[in-house]
Amino acid sequence: MFAVCVTFIIEPSKAEAFHAHINLNAKASVEMEAGCQLFDVCTDPSDPAKFFLYEIYDSAAAFDEHLESAHFKSFCSDIEGMVIDKKVESFENVTAARK
Predict the structure, then answer these.
(1) Which of 17, 33, 97, 34 has its CA nearest to residue 70?
(2) Is residue 99 part of a domain?
(3) Residue 95: which pLDDT band, with cuts at 50, 70 and 90?
(4) 92 closest CA partner among 62, 68, 70, 65
């Protein structure tokens, strides 16, 4: 498994619109990409312009396929001008413990 964690800081006046776009991208990723197993969108309760994404893919190659997908490219176009800062980290050998 391959995990991707992304932190976005969004222009505060555009946070609501960004939230709608990222939710659509997350839903499309899970539904349309065989290699995307999980795509959580988290918000900071003390800062509505800060978003944290936690994504699980079968492999780094599956994540690369995500980056080439039409819905991801559309998302990138849709959020142009909204992002103040973005940090992306990736991790391998994910072990999931679930209840």
Answers:
(1) 33
(2) no
(3) confident
(4) 62
Residues 98, 22, 64: CA angle, nearest 5 degrees: 75
The span from the CA of 3 to the CA of 49, in Å, is: 23
**Contact yes or no for 38/56 (Cβ under 8 A):** yes
Span 8-57, pLDDT tens digits: 999 999 999 999 999 999 999 999 999 999 999 999 999 999 999 999 99
* CA 68 – CA 11 distance, rounded (Å): 26
Q: Tell me, what CATH number does 38's domain have?
A: 3.30.70.100
Whether pTM > 0.85 for this model: the answer is: yes
Contact 39, 55 (CB under 8 A): yes
